[in-house]
Structure formats: C-alpha cells, structure tokens
Amino acid sequence: MDRMQRAWWSRLSWGAAGLGLSLLGAWLIAQRGLDAQRAAFETDARIVHRLLSQQVVQHDAVLATLALLEPARADALPRLSAIHPRLLQVRVREPGGAWPDAALTEAETAARASGRAAMADAELAQGRYTLVQGAGNGAYALDIALAGLVPDADWPMDRANSPVQVALQWRGQSLVLQPGQPQARGWRFDFDKVVAAESQPFHAVAIRWVGWGELPWLAMGAWTLFVTTVLVAWRHALRSREARQRAEALLRLGQLGRLNAMGEFAAGLAHELNQPLTAVLASTQAAQRLLADNPPELDTAREAMGRAAAQARRAADVLGRLRRGLQAPADASTARVALDLAACVREALHLLQPEIERCGVSVRWRASEPVQVMADTVAIDQIVHNLIANALQAMDRQAGGARELHLAVRREGKQAVLDVIDSGPGLPPDVLSRVFEPFFSTRDGGLGLGLTLSESLAQAEGGRLSAANAPEGGAHFTLQLPLHTP
After folding, report:
1. Are 455 and 260 in contact (CB under 8 A)?
2. Beta partners for residue 89, in sequence order
3. What stretches in the chain show pLDDT beneath 50?
4. Within 13 Å, how many C-alpha atoms sit on residue 285's CB side?
5. Helix, strand or coil for residue 388?
6. Domains of the chain and any CATH numbers
7. Which residues contact 138 (CB under 8 A, 6 or more apart)?
8. Which of the residues 124, 225, 279, 448 could staple to 440 if both were Cys, CB 3.0 to 4.6 A apart?
C-alpha cells in the first residue's frame, strides 16, 4: 500500500470515527430526550388516573349515603344533581318491588353478594353507565354521565392540543376523554391502570406518540458539531506534531548531510591542494640549493627561501591534519547495529511525504520479507534519503508524464539490495559516467556532493552504490549492503 492509499485510509478512519461518535452521542441524547418525554407522559397519566379515581369514588359515596338514609322516593334527585351535575337520574326499588330491567336485578344481586355497588350496564359510546347498590329490602341505582367527569380546570393537559390520547375502557367499550394526536410511526408510550373503585373497574388508558420532529435535534446537532470540531482540532494537532517531528528529523538529517558533505569537500580540497603545495616545497628547496651555490646575496636569499619552505611545510601539515581528522576511525564498526532496511525506507518516505505530495508522485514499493543489515543508522538514513530526494527532484524537473517512484527491498545471495527507480528523464551517457564524481551536478545550484557522499558511505559500510537507466525509462539506483547474520 503506497502513501497515498494510506493517507486515504487515514482520512476514512477519521471520518468513520467522527461518524460513529456523532451517531452514538446523538442516539444517547435522543434516548435521554425520549426518557424525559416518557417521564412527563407518565406523570400526566398518573394525575389523570388519580382524578378519575377520586370522581368515581364519589359515586360509591352517594350510593352509600342513599343506602344509609333509605329514602322511599327519589326526591333527592334535584339536590344531588345540584351537587353532582353528572348524576342523570336516581332510581329506587321499593321493598317488595322489582326492577323493570333484568340488568339492574343482576347488578343488585352482585352488589349484595360483594357488599359494594355494582355496575348494571354501561354505554361508554354514549357517555353513560348505571351503578346499583342494595339497601335493606330495597335498592338504589344511579344513572351517571361521564361527560365532564373531571373539570377542565383540574385536567393536567390541554385537551385540544395535547398529543396524549386519554380514554376510559370497560369490557371492550371505550370513551375518549382527550383525543390527542395518534400517529402511525415513531415512539409509543402506553399507560393502562384500573381506577381506584372496585365497583367501577374502568381502565384509564393513555397513549402518547413521539414523532421524529420531537427529537432534540438542536442538542444532537450541537453534539455532532462538537465532535467534528474536536476531531478536526485533534487531527490538526497530530498532523502539526507529525510535521514538527518530520521537520526536526529533516533538520538533523540535513545537518548531518551538510557535515558529511563538508567533510567530503574538505577531503577533496586537501587532496587537490596537497600536490601543488608539495611542488612548491620541492621548488623552494631546489632554489635554496641553487642560490646557495652562487647567490648575489646569499644570506638574504637563504633566509627568504627558508621561510618559504617552512610555510609550505606548515600548510602541508595543516592539510594533513585536516584529512586525518576527516577519516573514519578504525573502530567505526562499534557504531553499527542491526537495521531493517525496509524500516529505513519507510522513515525516509515519512520525512519526505510533503515533498512527495507537492510533486504529485505516486509511490509503489514492496518488501517481501524482513531484510536486515549491520550498518550505521545515520549512514543508511543519509543514503536512502539522498536517493529518494534525487528521484523526486528528477521527476519534478520533468514537464509531463506519470510520476511514479518504485522502491523494492530484497535479498540477493548474501547481499541486501534496495532498488530506487523513478519515472524521470533518466541519465544520459555523459551524466551516467560522472554521476558519482565530486562537485558534478545537473541541477542548478547543486553542489554535486549528495551521490558522492552516498557512495562513500555505502563503501564505508561494506557495500556499493550503482546507477543505471531503467528499461522502461528513468534512473535506477541500486544500493547493496552485506546481510546481517544473527
């Protein structure tokens, strides 16, 4: 998987994480909102149940009062109607008489058996029912209207606009006390409880539908915005930290590269200056001998040539010390460790990722198995970095065509091999023969020391660096290093 694919998967992972957290938080907020609406619904439903229970219990009290007073006729009806407007009629069965309706007779029998009032019949659709109570040898019946059973002033909800539907139910019959707003979908809350009067076993039933529009969308949207903001800030912080670490690593690597390049430069300079200084030394010594044979001013010439010879030897000594100081120590192998060559490639790609994206280069690379070498970490990092950076620069100078960088880490006998192949213009024959020559560069402003330094570092690690042109076009650099043997 190349860097662009990993970047795409990284963005996809962040997006999936943000979506998951947003959905989870929104679901919890919605659930909390539904719980609050359920609690409010149940509170209103319990209040309705208590009010209905209080009203129907009064009917038992009226019948108990009639049974205690035992009036012979229903003359108290006007007074009862004034106190309880919902009492439509009071009927009396005198001792020895009979009810004109069999349902009333059955209800009286049931009332005497249970010791409490009993319902004779009910027509909930018409909003009325009859309650019967036996008293001595007689009996009393109340025809009760359910309309206005609970006054609007005491009702806990707005009957016209409340979404809660409230009804009284008895043996399959139903009387709607509050129409509510029934729906076909959404969340449904139910309440069903028998009123607190055994003589009138009505079910107080309440139903509440919560639609999608009643969810706390504002809070859910705020949560989603919060999650998005936090994740974006977090990702930006991580990318900033990664960019800072990459910049610091590039700075360290650049400093080491410059130091190594300066060392290579100083070594080359010492090599170039040592020969003319030696010639100066030999010439001045010869002149000194000639002047000593027949000089016009022997003492002065001898003294001058002696000073020239001393300065020449001093310059040669200084350059010799510089060269000796730039040479690798004899025990340089102590700095070598076992390295995973593929890991070095991944680190270089990570450091050069901004440059790869700027150049629009697609990276393809493979490492079939772990390949370890025993080498100096800094040296291998410098070589790999230089090879990939040179490939990017070569493709960046190319006006058109695909920009692809192919990398491969493999074993070849006892050697670990890294192939770096670009899709750039390649290496002309005159450039290919001088590509590792110090101070030779095809790039404007280039010092021409990067590949020279890389070749020197590879040789110092017991390997070699070679260059060629790929068959399909572009440059092909091959780094060979001895395999690490555990």
Report:
1. no
2. 143
3. 1, 76-77, 271-272, 275, 318, 321, 325-326, 328-334
4. 10
5. helix
6. 3-214 (no CATH), 218-327 (1.10.287.130), 334-482 (3.30.565.10)
7. 70, 92, 93, 94, 95, 97
8. 448
Looking at residue 62, its pLDDT comes to 87
User: pTM for this one?
Assistant: 0.53
Tokens 């310059």 belong to residue? 315
Q: DSSP alpha helices (H): ranges in 294-369?
A: 298-326, 341-351, 353-359
Give dist(CA 24, CA 13) in Å, integer: 16
Burial group, residue 46, by CB count within 10 angstroms (0-12, 13-18, 19+): middle
Condensed to tens digits (0 to 9), the pLDDT of residues 61-102 reads: 888 888 887 665 555 445 666 677 788 888 888 888 899 889
**What are the two backbone dihedrals, phi and then psi, of residue 381, each rounded to the nearest 5 degrees?**
-60, -40
Following DSSP, what letter does each residue of 79-104 receive, concatenated? HHHHH-TTEEEEEEE-TT---SSHHH
DSSP letter assigned to residue 483: B
How many other C-beta atoms can be found within 10 angstroms of the C-beta atom of residue 418? 27
The full DSSP string for 110-145 is: HHHHHTS-EEEEEETTTTEEEEEEEETTEEEEEEEE
Q: Please check whether residue 59 is in contact with residue 196, taking contact to mean a CB–CB distance below 8 angstroms.
A: no
Quote the crossing angle between the two packed helices 450-460 and 217-293, to the nearest 10°: 80
Paired tokens of 176: 């709607």
State the pairing for strand pair 362-367/404-412: parallel
Question: How many helices (H) and strands (E) would you count in the chain?
Answer: 10, 15
Give the pLDDT score at 327: 52
